[in-house]
Amino acid sequence: MQPAYDGSMFAAYQDVILVAPNYRTNVFGFPNSPELPQTGQNLGFLDQRFALDWVQRNIHAFGGDPTKVTIFGESAGAFSVDALLTSFPKNSTPPFRGAILESGQISYRAAPEAPSTPSWDTLAAMLNCTGTSNLTCIRAAPATTIKNIIEMQELVFNPVADNVTLVSNPAQMRLSGNIVNIPVLSGTNAQEGRVFEVGQTNVTQYVQTTFGAIPGLPEQIEAAYPIGQNGLNSDYDVISQIFTEVEFQCSDALFANATASVGIPSWRYYYNASFPDAQPYNFLGVYHSSEIPQVFGSYLLTNPILGPTVQEYALSSFMNGAWAKFAKDPVGGPGWNAIGTGGSFWLGASDQDLGVLGNQGNTNGSGVTVIQESTVDYRCDLYKPLYEAVSGVQIS
């Protein structure tokens, strides 16, 4: 296990059992082979379901209760959580009762996933597997050879909609109300995109390339992120923030509020803190995945040389406790207002129901500060046409 995901603090201080199963990824988990049936493509998702089944059958041996399982994941792990949430229909009995999604979901995407069959074909060609069965030939190749080809060719293998482990229309499924009523805690980091957009230096080119298919949208987006304001001091800052909001923040706002709109308890957080011992490079700020050592309380394991600041220690203790509080009582929530308890920004009101974890304005926080979602989501309307086109649902 990677040190950041060490569950000792949950076990020692929160009386929570943490199970961290492995699952197959890339071509080994999501092959996209035309020789496999549709229901045999998402092997990685099936691995996760087998792991949850193992927990149901065995967690009692560790002092756990199989009726009190909360699933949680970050990034692709959060995609997996959303896939599970939307593939269990309303009257089913899933092997979990709560769900936490950190920096990811699949219901609202700014662009559709590209088919991965071309990646399978490229892999087959590189392995000289051009006979009657590419599948048989590729299966016979050494795993290290396959891995090297995938990395050198930058091949991507995505899940497919099999309507068993991944539905074809998760946003529509959620809004229809035909998903199991599982309380959710979801959120994003303030500067997710900084780790993805390193080296980008031309805002105009970026927005034209990324959003040029919709006339007028690139110009609107560029105007909404003026350089020299709100901490955006360079093209890299602007591009990173655009990526943060369109790929993570605004889509999570939709996810959280859509969930609440059908009567499922939903809480949302906004992580905004950066510490020296969590910075591989000092310009990354509150980057994608930087909250993980705070959630797990594992910051001393990830960087034992630099000691934590007082704020880091206190904030990590709070977040570790909030995640555990939610796991112990998902209906009760993590300790701040649920989305939709009196309305929300996306649903036409302005109640304070976004939990800021860390810094708010000039205050370096060590707990939660509850604010209106519109305080950070004020540019999200720009991206509605993208989400509507991909999700197939109208966003009010």
Task: Please describe what this structure looks like.
Belongs to the type-B carboxylesterase/lipase family. One of its GO terms (molecular function) is carboxylic ester hydrolase activity. Its EC number is 3.1.1.-. This is Carboxylic ester hydrolase. Residues 4-329 form the Carboxylesterase type B domain. The chain is globular, with a radius of gyration of 21 Å. The protein has helices at residues 8-14, 26-29, 43-58, 76-87, 117-126, 134-140, 143-153, 170-176, 203-211, 217-224, 235-261, 292-296, 299-302, 310-328, 374-377, 384-391; strands at residues 70-74, 98-102, 184-189, 266-272, 352-358, 368-372. The termini are far apart. The model is unreliable at 343-349 (pLDDT under 50). The longest helix is centred in the middle third of the chain and has 27 residues, at 235-261. A six-stranded mixed beta sheet has the order 1-2-3-4-5-6. It has 16 helices and six strands. By secondary structure, it is of the alpha/beta class. Helix 4 (76-87) links the parallel strand 1 (70-74) and strand 2. The protein has one domain: Alpha/Beta hydrolase fold, catalytic domain (Rossmann fold, 3-Layer(aba) Sandwich), CATH 3.40.50.1820.
